[in-house]
Amino acid sequence: MKSEIIADRVKGLEGSGIRKFFDVAQQMEGAISLGVGEPDFVTPWSIREACIFSLEKGYTSYTSNWGLLELREALSDRVYKESGVYYEPEGEILITTGVSEAFDLALRAIVNPGDEIVLHEPSYVSYKPCTVFAAGTPVCVDTEIEDEFKLRAEKLKEKITEHTKAVILSYPNNPTGATLSRKDLEEIADVVNEHDLLVISDEVYGKLTYEGKHTCFSSLNGMKERTILLNGFSKAYAMTGWRLGYAAGNKEIIEAMMKIHQYIMLCAPITAQMAAMEALRTNDEMERMVSEYNRRRRLMVEGLREIGLSCFEPKGAFYTFPSIENTGLTSEEFAKRLLLEERVVVIPGSVFGACGEGFIRCAYAVSQYQIREALERMEKFLERLRI
Amino acid sequence: MKEKDRGKEEEILKILEDNARISDEEIAKMVGMEKEEVKQSISELEDRGVIKGYKAVINPDKAGIETVQALIDVKVSSERNAGYDNVAERISRFPEVKSVRLVSGEYDLSVLVEGNTMREVAYFVAEKISSLEQVRNTVTHFLLKSYKENGKIYEEEEKGKRLAVTL
């Protein structure tokens, strides 16, 4: 056997240190977890029921590589109604196995070795490794709490070189809960235009926007052609385990993504696609969940401030990102000790990029009861630290 | 009332409908008001009769409470100038009666009656309801099992287990 079994780009990936902590957290009895990245709601019954019905009817085959046409039509309608951008169901929309697959396809479709992909941090953990897998070079822009964790056009501009191919936009943001206003987005669009770039816009938390309305990046003037819009059903409809997402964009790019998709995935699972069609029929259940998240958001933010952590006010997703700098601990130490001493799981901010150091991510996709209990435990922990 | 205040009032009602034991302080956090404002708003809602009371949703089977309930379809003749109101109000005053609703269809009133035994309920219907002058006919359905009451499912399905950590 060759001495070097594992490919360099995989071996080079970091993150093994923190995995031990996560293993302990997964196993800890009696722990309250604010470390979750998914809704605590079960998928609404009407959606589950539609899926069961489809199985009874015998819908168990492959679908078109693109996904069911009926679903693409429903999505096209929905996106048009909500953001004013029209995507043709045939050729401009591709149904994927979660946004994760769509994201991977997007990168592989556009990146040549050495192309630079600009991404803002703190952000979701997959962006950097997926860029590396696609032979691209990730270039990170730090966002700061003083700036409400927004990606600013000027800071983006500083990172652009002749090799820059695309920008990854991820708002509402995991882990910070930050959102961008229409004006913020327009300023980014100007830079994108000026430097002839593409944008991969991950808007999976778009529906979970609590103040103002989410602006779809491709709805901005001239941006439809330059944007690969990624979205899915996981967060808004509490369907994480169904693994269903989609990409929308100009025909040339979507066609290229589809080429890869047909060889590696063939199609997204038909059962999830049937369920998704039901999900798109009504928004009532989703809106009910969103208003519940909003209540928990306020409970969590106020609670964190009361126990002495300064907390940026998140306006989207279901995460808070309080600063733990005044404790003198690193975010990893803080998370480890909090778990062992008080059995509360939080995620160290450093996981989401170096500039996430000094913060922790606390999800509020848990019951009001659990939020109260977790805050009480955290308060005890913080009091002990101060003595 | 300002549109904004009405929105907050509705939000308070939603929170209380889900959990009436929550503190004013927590409601205040969730709707973005001062604690005193919440207190005042709730007492206004009580005064206006919007909030009629606070009750626990009890599963009598689990509590070991052996009561008998029956839904009674009641056919009544309506009265000039009063329609069904007089007879419905009369029936409503009995403490054994848990709800009285005017319904469309073959019967006019749907009455929920509670008692300790089947005999007691049957006796009540015969003595107190059927005997009323305006009542022409009744049908009694004893309840055998309750699956959902007031929006709460009694035997909640098991929720799948989420991982403690996902990024």
Walkthrough of the structure:
The complex is a heterodimer of chains A (about 375) and B (about 170). Chain A has about 375 residues and is of the alpha/beta class. Chain A folds into two domains: about 10-45 and about 285-385, Aspartate Aminotransferase, domain 1, CATH 3.90.1150; about 45-280, Type I PLP-dependent aspartate aminotransferase-like (Major domain) (Aspartate Aminotransferase, domain 2, 3-Layer(aba) Sandwich), CATH 3.40.640. Helices cover about 40% and strands about 15% of the residues of chain A. Chain A has helices spanning about 10, 15-25, 45-55, 70-85, 100-110, 125-135, 155-160, 180-195, 250-265, 270-280, 285-305, 330-340, 370-385; strands at about 30-35, 95, 115-120, 135-140, 165-170, 200, 225-230, 245-250, 320, 345, 345-350, 360-365. In chain A, the strands form three sheets. In chain A, strands 2-8-7-6-5-3-4 form a seven-stranded mixed β-sheet, sandwiched between helices. Chain A is globular and about 65 Å long. The termini of chain A are far apart. With about 170 residues, chain B is α+β, with helices and mostly antiparallel strands. Chain B folds into two domains: about 5-45, Arc Repressor Mutant, subunit A (Orthogonal Bundle), CATH 1.10.10; about 60-145, 2-Layer Sandwich (Alpha-Beta Plaits), CATH 3.30.70.920. Chain B has a four-stranded antiparallel β-sheet. Chain B has a two-stranded antiparallel ribbon with strand order 5-6. In chain B, a hairpin with a 2-residue loop joins strand 5 and strand 6 (about 150-155). In chain B, helix 2 crosses helix 3. The chains are: A alpha/beta (about 375), B alpha+beta (about 170). Chains A and B meet through helix 2 and helix 11 of A and helix 1 and helix 2 of B.
